[in-house]
Design brief:
The chain is of the alpha/beta class. It is built from 8 helices and 6 strands.
Protein backbone atom coordinates (compact mmCIF):
# COMPACT_ATOMS: atom_id res chain seq x y z
CA UNK A 1 0.00 0.00 0.00
CA UNK A 2 1.25 3.46 -0.88
CA UNK A 3 -0.77 6.67 -0.64
CA UNK A 4 0.65 10.07 -1.60
CA UNK A 5 -0.75 13.06 0.28
CA UNK A 6 -0.16 16.76 -0.27
CA UNK A 7 -1.07 18.72 2.87
CA UNK A 8 -1.79 22.39 2.10
CA UNK A 9 -2.13 25.18 4.64
CA UNK A 10 -5.15 27.39 3.93
CA UNK A 11 -4.72 30.90 2.57
CA UNK A 12 -4.18 33.88 4.85
CA UNK A 13 -7.22 35.03 6.86
CA UNK A 14 -7.89 38.28 8.66
CA UNK A 15 -7.13 36.64 12.01
CA UNK A 16 -3.78 35.49 10.59
CA UNK A 17 -3.12 39.03 9.42
CA UNK A 18 -3.89 40.43 12.88
CA UNK A 19 -1.86 37.72 14.69
CA UNK A 20 -4.91 36.36 16.49
CA UNK A 21 -5.34 32.83 17.79
CA UNK A 22 -7.35 30.92 15.20
CA UNK A 23 -8.14 27.32 15.98
CA UNK A 24 -11.80 26.39 15.61
CA UNK A 25 -12.75 30.06 15.33
CA UNK A 26 -12.78 31.22 11.74
CA UNK A 27 -12.26 34.32 9.61
CA UNK A 28 -12.60 35.05 5.89
CA UNK A 29 -9.65 34.83 3.55
CA UNK A 30 -7.91 38.13 2.84
CA UNK A 31 -7.10 39.17 -0.72
CA UNK A 32 -3.66 37.69 -0.12
CA UNK A 33 -5.34 34.51 1.14
CA UNK A 34 -7.34 34.22 -2.04
CA UNK A 35 -4.15 34.61 -4.05
CA UNK A 36 -2.44 32.03 -1.79
CA UNK A 37 -5.15 29.52 -2.70
CA UNK A 38 -4.97 30.26 -6.43
CA UNK A 39 -1.18 30.01 -6.41
CA UNK A 40 -1.16 26.62 -4.71
CA UNK A 41 -3.81 25.43 -7.16
CA UNK A 42 -1.47 26.31 -10.01
CA UNK A 43 1.46 24.67 -8.19
CA UNK A 44 -0.52 21.45 -7.80
CA UNK A 45 -1.68 21.47 -11.41
CA UNK A 46 1.36 19.34 -12.27
CA UNK A 47 0.03 16.65 -9.89
CA UNK A 48 -2.76 14.27 -10.91
CA UNK A 49 -4.65 13.84 -7.64
CA UNK A 50 -7.63 11.56 -7.12
CA UNK A 51 -9.15 13.11 -4.00
CA UNK A 52 -9.22 16.45 -2.23
CA UNK A 53 -10.12 16.74 1.43
CA UNK A 54 -10.37 19.80 3.63
CA UNK A 55 -11.10 20.43 7.25
CA UNK A 56 -14.69 21.53 7.75
CA UNK A 57 -13.64 25.06 8.78
CA UNK A 58 -14.60 27.64 6.16
CA UNK A 59 -11.07 28.97 5.57
CA UNK A 60 -9.93 25.49 4.56
CA UNK A 61 -13.05 24.70 2.51
CA UNK A 62 -12.80 28.00 0.61
CA UNK A 63 -9.09 27.52 0.00
CA UNK A 64 -9.80 24.07 -1.42
CA UNK A 65 -12.51 25.44 -3.73
CA UNK A 66 -10.23 28.20 -5.01
CA UNK A 67 -7.41 25.69 -5.44
CA UNK A 68 -9.63 23.46 -7.58
CA UNK A 69 -10.85 26.40 -9.67
CA UNK A 70 -7.24 27.43 -10.39
CA UNK A 71 -6.16 23.93 -11.46
CA UNK A 72 -6.99 23.32 -15.13
CA UNK A 73 -6.02 19.64 -14.90
CA UNK A 74 -8.56 18.38 -12.36
CA UNK A 75 -12.17 17.37 -12.79
CA UNK A 76 -12.85 17.55 -9.05
CA UNK A 77 -15.34 20.27 -8.12
CA UNK A 78 -15.78 20.13 -4.34
CA UNK A 79 -13.58 19.06 -1.41
CA UNK A 80 -14.59 16.26 0.93
CA UNK A 81 -14.97 17.94 4.33
CA UNK A 82 -13.28 16.00 7.12
CA UNK A 83 -13.43 17.41 10.69
CA UNK A 84 -10.42 15.28 11.69
CA UNK A 85 -8.19 17.70 9.75
CA UNK A 86 -9.28 20.75 11.78
CA UNK A 87 -6.81 23.06 13.47
CA UNK A 88 -5.97 22.60 17.14
CA UNK A 89 -8.71 24.00 19.42
CA UNK A 90 -7.27 26.75 21.63
CA UNK A 91 -10.26 26.98 23.96
CA UNK A 92 -10.27 30.13 26.10
CA UNK A 93 -7.49 31.60 23.96
CA UNK A 94 -9.46 31.54 20.69
CA UNK A 95 -9.32 35.00 19.09
CA UNK A 96 -6.75 36.33 21.58
CA UNK A 97 -3.61 38.19 20.53
CA UNK A 98 -1.00 35.57 19.64
CA UNK A 99 1.90 37.45 21.17
CA UNK A 100 0.03 37.93 24.44
CA UNK A 101 -0.83 34.21 24.64
CA UNK A 102 2.80 33.29 23.92
CA UNK A 103 3.89 35.48 26.84
CA UNK A 104 1.28 33.91 29.13
CA UNK A 105 2.28 30.36 28.27
CA UNK A 106 6.01 30.72 27.65
CA UNK A 107 7.18 34.12 28.87
CA UNK A 108 8.61 32.98 32.18
CA UNK A 109 10.63 30.36 30.30
CA UNK A 110 12.08 32.95 27.92
CA UNK A 111 9.77 32.07 25.01
CA UNK A 112 7.83 34.91 23.40
CA UNK A 113 6.59 33.36 20.15
CA UNK A 114 4.88 30.10 19.25
CA UNK A 115 7.82 29.14 17.05
CA UNK A 116 10.16 29.52 20.01
CA UNK A 117 7.91 27.39 22.20
CA UNK A 118 7.50 24.73 19.52
CA UNK A 119 11.27 24.61 19.00
CA UNK A 120 11.98 24.49 22.74
CA UNK A 121 9.26 22.10 23.92
CA UNK A 122 8.05 20.32 20.83
CA UNK A 123 4.56 20.75 19.48
CA UNK A 124 2.87 18.17 21.72
CA UNK A 125 4.23 19.67 24.92
CA UNK A 126 3.16 23.09 23.65
CA UNK A 127 -0.40 21.80 23.20
CA UNK A 128 -0.35 20.41 26.72
CA UNK A 129 0.86 23.69 28.21
CA UNK A 130 -1.79 25.71 26.37
CA UNK A 131 -4.45 23.27 27.55
CA UNK A 132 -3.17 23.52 31.13
CA UNK A 133 -3.27 27.33 30.96
CA UNK A 134 -6.90 27.33 29.74
CA UNK A 135 -8.96 28.05 32.84
CA UNK A 136 -12.07 26.54 31.19
CA UNK A 137 -10.36 23.27 30.29
CA UNK A 138 -11.58 23.39 26.69
CA UNK A 139 -8.29 23.64 24.76
CA UNK A 140 -7.09 20.43 23.14
CA UNK A 141 -4.10 18.70 24.65
CA UNK A 142 -1.86 16.44 22.57
CA UNK A 143 -3.81 13.28 23.34
CA UNK A 144 -7.14 14.75 22.23
CA UNK A 145 -5.59 16.29 19.13
CA UNK A 146 -3.99 13.04 17.96
CA UNK A 147 -7.10 10.98 18.68
CA UNK A 148 -8.87 13.25 16.20
CA UNK A 149 -6.08 13.63 13.64
CA UNK A 150 -5.32 9.90 13.54
CA UNK A 151 -8.90 9.29 12.38
CA UNK A 152 -8.08 11.44 9.36
CA UNK A 153 -4.94 9.44 8.65
CA UNK A 154 -6.96 6.23 8.94
CA UNK A 155 -9.29 7.59 6.28
CA UNK A 156 -6.34 8.37 4.01
CA UNK A 157 -4.84 4.92 4.52
CA UNK A 158 -8.15 3.35 3.48
CA UNK A 159 -8.04 5.01 0.06
CA UNK A 160 -7.34 2.70 -2.89
CA UNK A 161 -3.71 1.71 -3.31
CA UNK A 162 -1.56 4.29 -5.14
CA UNK A 163 -4.12 7.05 -4.63
CA UNK A 164 -2.95 10.67 -4.58
CA UNK A 165 -4.81 13.05 -2.27
CA UNK A 166 -4.70 16.73 -1.35
CA UNK A 167 -5.66 17.76 2.19
CA UNK A 168 -6.26 21.43 2.98
CA UNK A 169 -5.58 21.85 6.69
CA UNK A 170 -4.03 24.34 9.12
CA UNK A 171 -0.69 25.70 10.28
CA UNK A 172 -0.33 24.29 13.79
CA UNK A 173 -1.85 20.97 12.71
CA UNK A 174 0.58 20.59 9.80
CA UNK A 175 3.53 21.64 11.97
CA UNK A 176 2.48 18.97 14.50
CA UNK A 177 2.40 16.31 11.78
CA UNK A 178 5.87 17.35 10.61
CA UNK A 179 7.15 17.31 14.20
CA UNK A 180 5.90 13.75 14.63
CA UNK A 181 7.08 12.29 11.33
CA UNK A 182 9.97 14.42 10.03
CA UNK A 183 13.17 14.00 12.01
CA UNK A 184 15.08 17.22 12.46
CA UNK A 185 12.33 19.56 11.25
CA UNK A 186 13.07 23.18 12.18
CA UNK A 187 10.24 24.12 14.53
CA UNK A 188 11.18 27.77 14.15
CA UNK A 189 9.65 27.49 10.68
CA UNK A 190 5.87 27.62 10.64
CA UNK A 191 4.24 26.38 7.43
CA UNK A 192 3.35 29.40 5.35
CA UNK A 193 -0.17 30.13 4.16
CA UNK A 194 -0.64 28.27 0.90
CA UNK A 195 2.43 26.08 1.44
CA UNK A 196 2.63 22.36 0.68
CA UNK A 197 3.87 19.36 2.67
CA UNK A 198 4.14 16.06 0.80
CA UNK A 199 3.77 12.73 2.61
CA UNK A 200 3.93 9.09 1.62
CA UNK A 201 1.86 6.59 3.62
CA UNK A 202 2.63 2.87 3.42
CA UNK A 203 1.68 -0.17 5.48
CA UNK A 204 4.80 0.25 7.59
CA UNK A 205 5.78 3.92 7.38
CA UNK A 206 4.52 7.49 7.46
CA UNK A 207 7.10 9.66 5.72
CA UNK A 208 7.35 13.42 5.11
CA UNK A 209 8.93 13.97 1.69
CA UNK A 210 9.10 17.76 1.93
CA UNK A 211 7.75 20.48 4.22
CA UNK A 212 6.47 24.05 3.79
CA UNK A 213 7.18 24.53 0.09
CA UNK A 214 5.37 27.07 -2.09
CA UNK A 215 5.96 24.97 -5.21
CA UNK A 216 6.45 21.31 -6.03
CA UNK A 217 10.23 20.83 -5.95
CA UNK A 218 11.83 19.56 -9.13
CA UNK A 219 13.02 15.99 -8.82
Amino acid sequence: MAITVYFVRHGQTYLNRYNRMQGWSDAPLTEKGIEDAKRVGKALSKVKFDYIFSSDLSRAVNTARLLLAADPNTDLKEPIQEPAFREIFFGFFEGANGGAVADIVGGKYGYHTFSQMAAGWGTDELKNRIAKADQYGDAEDAERFWQRMDKGFDRLRNLPDNSVAVVVSHGAAIRSIADRYLEGVDQNVSPRNGSIMKMTLTDTDTHVDFYSQLHIPDK
